[in-house]
Design goal:
The protein is mostly helical. The protein contains 10 helices and no strands. The chain is elongated and about 60 Å long.
Length: 192
């Protein structure tokens, strides 16, 4: 490998770009420093100049996923809080199902240094928005706990749907009815 390519100021971005592409194509298990370096066209030691640990590189890759999800959820318009929660749920599930490798990486805190590269600065506002909307729909409840349960429900739908289990169990090929059921379970039936 060429030393001049390894000292390229754009190498940090290129390494993250390669990681984003790799996780999309081959999943979390493919995200080794050696493979990312190989695909970026640099020596296997070059990434350490920008990412002293593997966890830091994985965190930078996951940050891209949180940024993408955040941008998508920002497009959810101002409507009634319940309608916003339904739309946020749909956007979340579409992201999870369309970006399975990235989605897995984003929530694998055993693989990330979430406090180091600002991941919490990206992920916590998303959860905060969920808490705020739940609080408006359910002022009688602890909004953080209800939002946590709702998020866990969304995560469960995403995981089971990606495995094909939920379609088999429910007999549906559309996650919308399941999403409505999860919203009803945490927020009460719509219209109440």
């Amino acid at each position: 490998m060429h030393a001049s390519r390894e000292s390229d100021p754009g190498l940090r971005t290129r390494l993250v770009d390669v990681g984003v592409d790799l996780v999309a194509r081959e999943g979390v298990q493919a995200l080794t420093l050696r493979e990312i370096a190989r695909r970026a066209g640099v020596s296997h030691g070059a990434p350490r100049r920008y990412f002293p640990t593997h966890l830091e590189l994985l965190s930078a890759i996951a940050r891209r996923g949180f940024d993408d999800l955040g941008a998508r959820t920002a497009l959810v318009g101002d409507a009634r809080p319940r309608a916003q929660l339904a739309e946020l749920g749909r956007v979340y599930l579409e992201f999870a199902l369309g970006n399975r490798g990235m989605y897995e990486l984003m929530f694998r805190h055993d693989l990330l240094e979430s406090g180091h590269l600002g991941l919490r600065d990206t992920s916590l506002p998303l959860f905060g928005r969920l808490v705020e909307l739940v609080g408006r729909v359910r002022p009688d409840a602890d909004a953080r706990l209800v939002a946590g349960g709702l998020w866990a429900g969304l995560h469960g739908i995403a995981q089971l749907w990606s495995w094909g289990s939920l379609q088999l169990a429910t007999g549906t090929d559309d996650f919308a009815p399941v999403l409505r059921s999860v919203l009803d379970a945490h927020l009460g039936p719509e219209g109440e």
